[in-house]
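Justification of computing resources. Each target in the renewal requires a structure prediction run like the one illustrated here; the chain below, 110 residues long, is used simply to show the kind of job we budget for.
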Amino acid sequence: MSTAPQLELQSVEDGIHPRPSAGDWAQALLVKTWSVLKWISHRVTVQQSHKTLRVCESVSLGEKRFVALIQVDDQRFLIGGSAASVSLLSRLQEAKAFAAVLDREAEKIS
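Resulting structure tokens:
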């Protein structure tokens, strides 16, 4: 006779959890997608409402130097920069709308 303790073996099926159905996956994906879209729309709205400084155009001059046109509200500035500094080159006059200039020139011809 053997005096070794007897081990109870559990069936393999007891340890298996049921798999989620395709509907469960679709619902979870839909909830996550909705949360991400809601977060993105909030971020875009916040960024647009507080943005008063805009880089209209920038040109690289090589060796970490650049010239940029910056717009703050209705004012425009030409700035230059390097690795060590940024300088105001000029405050620019208001940009004239192309249509207004075209109308004025057309009146001169007429």
